[in-house]
Amino acid sequence: MIYLAHENREYSSEIDYAFDILMAGFVPRPVLVSFADLNRISFRNNDLVISYGKKCEGNVSAHRVHIYQGNLFGKNYLRHNSLPVKPLNLIDGLPVVYNSDQRLEKSVVITDNGKWKFIEINIDLIASTYFQITRYEEVLVPQRDHYHRFPVQNSLASQESYLQIPLINAYISLMEFWLGKCNPAISRPLPWGKHDFAACITHDVDTIEKFRRGNSWRHIAKAAISHRDPFEAFERMAARIGWEPYDTFKYILKLNRRFKLKSSFYFLAGENEKTRLSYQIDSPRVIKLINRLKQEYEIGLHAGFESFNDVLKLQEERCRLEVVTGLPVRGVRQHYLRFQVPLTWRYQEAAGFLYDTTLSFPEEEGFRCGICTPFQPFDLEERRKLDLWEVPLTVMDGTLFDYQKLGLDEAYERIRMLVDIVRNNGGVFVLLWHNSMLDEKKMPGIRGLYKRVLRYISDMNPLTGSVGEIVELWRKQCREPART
Ligand SMILES: [Zn+2]
Q: Separation of 177 CA from ligand 1 center, angstroms?
């Protein structure tokens, strides 16, 4: 058995949650108990206690790992002065968000009395995990960009250069290593079968027409005469008779078949977003498209620009999309990646979604929540774990091209590196590629790059599925610790 115990009653919801994240999927399944329970348990061989507290109290006749607590869960919790002190310390090259205040000779001290091992960890792994996964800093740091998004440069991960490290997965691997020293039978099997990781290809359908309302003869003539761009005139004319540069769905499906990958498509279904909505979800053309895609692929909601802080909008949009698909809509990604922690998660839960897959920074790829595996978010304000899954977005096309202005080869290298990182951590690689980002006229060579990216992902042999399928697999196998 693995027992988890801590003594902090005031912050037990928060600490239990961080234990859930760090210890999910371990076999045998850990059990959360109180410090008092530890005195009543008669331990057996190979039992292991993981405890968390300012002091390592109580005698335990079993292997023990003790994590020394720092100062996050105390009087300064959710105050500005509880933010981590920079620069961060490192352990094995890994940033440590919160230290404990114990004075041990090393970060990790292992003693062995011949019968049991005792491992003292002088890093507050619980608080560090909690900080990163709840997006704690986004609640405390007020800066926002012009779309009311938390800017990447205000994140600790960017300031301390660890955005491309899935820190929590690295902490979990450290735990696995230390626990294995106590009992080699402890394991953490992943739900990917013979695959090292999972990959989800996703597409936000922001628009399906390149020249919205711009295909009149007047527009065509203007392109040809005033802009002196015969190709644009030709494109507008072609779009007029049904050849549409942003209708790249056939191409996407063809490549999926070729590389044995699966996509999820997220459609906008808002009603009153005149300036930002380029199609109506219930127009015959979109219904036809969705009917074609839903035979093979998951259809989720690309929640509208104004929906991230409006639960009614989220509910309405989900309903409107369900009427069109005739199926339950389980997944959501917010348009422009607009997100307010923890409110958007809470509203997505209330609107009945199974999962969100928004959280990456628009300006820089990587691991905004410090993790590359699915998790249930924690609502810092209501102090509870939500009935919703987050499948963190790894990289969006626009991040590389629109924000960072990378060339095709540089973009390929960035994506390749991220695939490798996620693979090494047994995570879920989530790629966002807009259907409109396969227009060769706008970006020559883009289709070749997309093909190279898919080929690389496919060569790495991931388990592929819709995001919804991946969440189902994960939640079945990687259960959190049990509570007594
Ligand atoms: Zn969008």
A: 41
Cβ of 27: how many Cβ atoms within 10 Å?
13
What is residue 224's predicted lDDT score, i.e. its pLDDT?
A: 61
Q: Which residues surround ligand 1, an ion (CB under 5 A)?
A: 204, 206, 335
CA of 127 to the centre of ligand 1 (A): 33
| Same-domain status, 315 and 223 | no
Same-domain check for residues 268 and 224: no
Report the SS3 class of residue 414.
helix
Judgement on whether residues 364 and 443 belong to the same structural domain of the protein:
yes
Residue 210's SS3 state is: coil
Residues 370 and 445 in one domain: yes
Cβ proximity of 464 and 262 under 8 Å: yes
| Same-domain status, 165 and 53 | yes
Compute, in angstroms, the gap from residue 305 CA to the centroid of ligand 1: 8
User: How far does CA 414 lie from the centroid of its chain?
Assistant: 17
DSSP 368-403: TTS-SS-B--EETTTTEE-S-EE----EEHHIIIII
3-state SS class at 64: strand
Which of 269-283, 301-315, 467-481 is the least confident region?
269-283
Inside any domain, residue 356: yes
* Cα 168 to middle of ligand 1, angstroms: 28
Give the range of the structural domain holding residue 111, as residue numbers without chain letter: 2-181
How far does the centroid of ligand 1 lie from the alpha carbon of residue 94, in Å? Answer: 34
- Exposed/middle/buried for residue 312 (C-beta within 10 Å: 0-12, 13-18, 19+): exposed
Cβ 369 vs Cβ 342: under 8 Å: no
Residue 471 belongs to domain with CATH number: 3.20.20.370
| C-alpha 259 – ligand 1 centre gap (Å) | 25
Question: Distance (Å, rounded) from C-alpha 60 to C-alpha 330?
Answer: 45
- Tokens representing 270 are 């808002």
Q: Sign of dihedral through CA atoms 164, 76, 19, 347?
A: negative
- In this structure, the number of other CB atoms found within 10 A of the CB of residue 198 comes to 29
CA of 205 to the centre of ligand 1 (A): 7
pTM for this structure?
A: 0.93
Query: Ligand 1 center to residue 474 CA distance, Å?
Result: 26
Q: How confident is the model at residue 347 (pLDDT cuts 50, 70, 90)?
A: very high
